[in-house]
Design a protein that fits this description.
CATH architecture: 3-Layer(aba) Sandwich
Helix content: 25-40%
CATH topology: Protein Transport Mog1p, Chain A
Largest sheet: 8 strands, antiparallel
Strand content: 35-45%
Shape: globular
Radius of gyration: 19 Å
Number of strands: 11
Amino acid sequence: MKNFHFIAAALVICLMAGCNPFQRTNWVKMEKDSYTIMLPDYMTPQTDLHEEANLQYANIEKEVYIVVLEEPAIDFETAFADTSLGYPPTMQGYSDLIYEEFKLNMDSSLVSISERQIQKEGNVERHTFNSVATLDTFDAYYEFGIVRNDSTYYQIIAWTLADRKEQYKDDLAKMVKSLMPK
């Protein structure tokens, strides 16, 4: 009986604070020419998040954003085979470049960054990591995904305000991990 009163009190407090413990996020499968990705139904298309992105979605009110960039593998591998930038023309080299460049660009504003998680399924390799960094005057929480199949590299970047991390981190991670090349 004590547990019932505790649960009832927690629900009342949650409802008074504006959260809905029974609300579930509905997910929508987005089809692009070369991949699919799952997005929450609260996201809408955007055009001004990143000039090179071929997918841009956001919910401005919730401050949740995602972009996907796509690069032919041959372009990266050719460029890095002909230079001495120190990154091999492989998935590991591409991942190292993205990871290290993010750390370098956020140098003094980087609050935290996770180690990369690596998964491989068939011909698809996926590297993911997350970070908190200060951009301009606000702290942001980022989920990154780097995916490669036989012909293409994909960068998936999803973010929200750092103070909304706990509320949206599962959605961000699900979006990033859902990209599947065709």
